[in-house]
Amino acid sequence: MDTNTNASPILQTKQHFEVLDGLRGIAALAVVTFHFMEWIYTNPANNFIGHGFLAVDFFFCLSGFVIGYAYDDRIAKMGMLEFFKSRIIRLHPLVVLGSVLGLLAFLFDPFGGHPELYSTDKIILTFVCSVLLIPLPVIADRGFNLFSFNAPSWSLFWEYVANMVYALVLYRLSRGYLLLLTILSAAAICFVSYHSGNLLGGWSGPTFWDGSARISYSFLAGLLIYRSGWMIKNNLGFIGIAILLFLPFIMPFSKLNWVSEPLIVLFYFPLLIALGAGAGLAPGLKSLCSFLGKISYPLYMTHYAVLWMFGNYYISHKPGATQLAFIIITGLIVLVGAAYLVMVAYDIPVRKYLNHKRNKGIAK
């Protein structure tokens, strides 16, 4: 076994992939838009962004690439414990905040909800499990999500699992073994899609194990792209690749979803990662890509509390099409602004504090 002996010299220079940052932000916006629209169109065939949930698979693939890029050449020196500390400091402050916001929305939603139907003990237990990323799909008013107070945390749960497997096994593997695991995971993706008819699962109790197939293939594929140095030099730029990324999200629903969705995940998203890693970027777009990359995770982890309130408002008030369009567009803008404030006022300061404490401990 080897550790990244096949990575290209270009990747080892540790340049920053601004286009990939921007694409992460586009994917986050697609997820938020999808969550708004699925309240209005319970039949995804009528939803113009009915495949927006596939953005999560793109996140997983990008995560594999980024983790390999950031840690393959130093995890052996830093050690497993420090790696886990790094990942927890990077990810968990927003897991906690998302859970707090979700709890507040559950208790004080002005448009509906029935918190009185649940005992205080059950609410507290559900909140604690949400903070600790322990799946507990027990709240009916929250659709029996794995994490009732912050539904998107289901993907963070699998992200943590992937990070643990990476630290324990994957970083040691040669590219050949990694390729074998990726092929086996591709078979699992195909099985899940055929069995379920789509790749929408992973967020609920009954579809729990679908999430393992989704993270396994995409994370491994992203890691394989990095280890293989598969960067496709191109002149598409951020705008061109962003358009290519958005296309599968608006792909029409059909009886062949079980075929089209795996094709997107297995081949199209890895191709976009390779294109994004090799794309040039116009100087005028660097700030935009940086902004989109920075707010992507805060946006993803804090938006769903608002979505439950929006859903209850939609059900109780039945607003018209014009009003809905105004609410959703305004909501997207406000959520992006809120994500930026969360990043500046909470996420960055908390991570800075935790890293400072950690570094003091290492120094001792």
What does this structure look like?
- The chain has 364 residues and is mostly helical.
- The chain is built from 14 helices and no strands.
- It has one domain.
Which helices and strands occur, and which strands form pairs?
Elements (H helix, E strand, L loop, with lengths): L8 H4 L5 H23 L14 H17 L3 H4 L1 H29 L11 H12 L21 H16 L6 H22 L11 H21 L8 H13 L7 H22 L7 H17 L1 H14 L3 H43 L1
Helix pairs in contact: 2-3, 2-10, 2-12, 2-13, 3-9, 3-11, 5-6, 5-7, 5-12, 5-13, 5-14, 7-9, 8-9, 8-11, 9-11, 10-11, 12-14
Largest sheet: none
What's the shape? globular
Reading the helices and strands in chain order gives HHHHHHHHHHHHHH
Low-confidence stretches: 1-13
Mean pLDDT: 94
Structural class: mainly alpha
Percent helix range: over 70%
- How many DSSP helices? 14
How many beta strands in the DSSP annotation?
A: 0
Strand content: under 5%
The value of Rg in angstroms is: 20 Å
What count of structural domains? 1
Distance N terminus to C terminus? 34 Å
Which tags fit this structure?
single chain, 364 residues, mainly alpha, 14 helices, disordered N terminus
Brief write-up:
By secondary structure, this protein is an all-alpha fold.
